[in-house]
Amino acid sequence: MTRYHSLVVEPDSLPACFDVTAWSETREIMGIRHRQWDLEGVQFHPESILSEQGHQLLANFLHR
């Protein structure tokens, strides 16, 4: 996963309405999903050539 900043969501600050869907190798939260609403977010750049499987992730999101 490729990030261009140092900001991350701290696990203790994540509201209970979110599930973690992706972690970095160093256990930083990289993806979340709301438990009730159709909301998802990632904290990396899936479009970057440096993000392994990033284009597949985008395709999966668009064709779900």
UniProtKB/TrEMBL annotation:
Start and end residues of each Glutamine amidotransferase domain: 2-63
Keywords: Aminotransferase, Glutamine amidotransferase, Transferase
InterPro entries, per the entry: Anth_synth/Amidotransfase (IPR050472), Class_I_gatase-like (IPR029062), GATASE (IPR017926), TrpG/PapA_dom (IPR006221)
Gene Ontology cellular component terms for the protein in this record: cytosol
Name the UniProt record assigns to this protein: Para-aminobenzoate synthase glutamine amidotransferase component I
An annotated Gene Ontology molecular function: 4-amino-4-deoxychorismate synthase activity
A single BP term in Gene Ontology: L-tryptophan biosynthetic process
UniProt keyword annotation of Transferase present: yes
EC number in record: 2.6.1.85
High-level lineage: Bacteria, Pseudomonadati, Pseudomonadota, Gammaproteobacteria, Enterobacterales
